[in-house]
Specification:
The structure is a single chain. This protein is an all-alpha fold. The protein folds into two domains: about 110 residues, no CATH class; about 150 residues, MetI-like (MetI-like fold, Orthogonal Bundle), CATH 1.10.3720.10. Helices cover about 65% and strands about 0% of the residues. Helix 12 packs antiparallel against helix 14. About 25% of the residues are buried. Belongs to the binding-protein-dependent transport system permease family. Keywords: Cell membrane, Membrane, Transmembrane, Transmembrane helix, Transport.
Length: about 300
């Protein structure tokens, strides 16, 4: 039985200790936000809260759920993430599969064009003018259509298709009369599910956390996603105005919460929790695909 030497044990201990400290430094701010979101705002303003709520309450979340603007922003974010991620994977993988076929006319020239566009873009002003001409300003589809195709993901998928899809299987399906569309859905998709899961998660996180599009290309408050709403209340000097007087009076009249126990800071902490938890829950379901999905196609046998 192989045993670790004293030097190897010391290295393992120091390495594990440093990683544990780094994990704590990364995780504690999130835990602190969660603690403040479940604590009464007035009590939290006194300080001294570090590990768990001192005066537990759900009032901060009741305020948020009673605000139709936040609820609407949440569903806008869910819709754009679901539609944008699915559409991006489908369209990008189709282009990648076409470019992975050596018999495609002009294949090398197309790859050079995609590479050039990926490295050099026109800038923000031409992009905005293009959105104006396409009538995507103040439109829900501004969250979806510009991101339907990712050149970087296309190159990753193309490499994966070339190195992992057996050419013999493709040729046998062609002999059976299958076309490229059937090969794509019957062979390419089943073989590439780990890759799709990894890239799909990265794409979904990008959609979920994107506040820039809603802040600069959408003026209608009813179309702004949750990250934009959160950025707005976090950067507003008078953040307490985000909880309107009418909402406070309405909620107080039906005894939804104690208005004397909440503050703008506690409501903001609860808004952050609602923003990050849904996408955080997705990670455990696709974690097993990470290593295989990211490394698939990286080594050619």
């Amino acid at each position: 039985m192989w045993r670790l030497t004293r030097r190897e044990k010391a290295f393992t201990f120091i390495n594990s200790s440093l990683l544990a400290i780094f994990a704590f430094v990364c995780a504690y701010p999130l835990w602190y936000i969660v603690v403040l979101s479940f604590n009464e705002g007035r009590d939290a303003s006194l300080g001294g809260i570090f590990w768990w709520p001192r005066v537990f309450t759900m009032d901060n979340f009741r305020v948020i759920l009673n605000d139709h603007t936040i609820v609407n922003a949440f569903w806008i974010t869910v819709a754009r993430t679901a539609i944008g991620t699915t559409g991006s994977l489908l369209i990008t993988s189709m282009v990648a599969y076409g470019l992975s076929r050596k018999e495609l006319p002009g294949r090398n020239q197309l790859l050079l064009v995609f590479l050039f566009v990926m490295l050099f873009n026109g800038g923000l002003i031409p992009f905005y003018l293009q959105l104006v001409h396409l009538k995507l300003i103040n439109n829900f589809w501004v969250y979806v259509l510009p991101g339907l195709f990712s050149i970087w993901n296309m190159f990753v998928m193309k490499t994966s298709f070339q190195n992992t899809i057996p050419e013999a299987v493709v040729e046998s399906m062609k002999l059976d009369g299958a076309g490229y569309t059937r090969i794509y859905f019957n062979i390419v998709l089943p073989f590439s599910m780990p890759l799709f899961a990894a890239l799909g998660l990265f794409t979904a996180v990008g959609h979920w956390n994107d506040w820039f599009t809603g802040a600069f290309f959408v003026n209608d408050l009813n179309l702004q996603p949750l990250p934009t709403y959160l950025q707005r209340i976090m950067s507003t000097i008078e953040a307490s105005q985000m909880i309107s007087a009418s909402q406070m009076a309405s909620a107080h009249s039906v005894s939804l919460y104690n208005p004397d126990a909440i503050t703008s800071k506690s409501v903001r902490m609860a808004t952050i929790v609602i923003t990050i938890l849904p996408i955080l829950f997705v990670y455990p379901f696709v974690q097993r695909f990470f290593v295989k999905g990211v490394l698939i196609g990286s080594v050619k046998e």
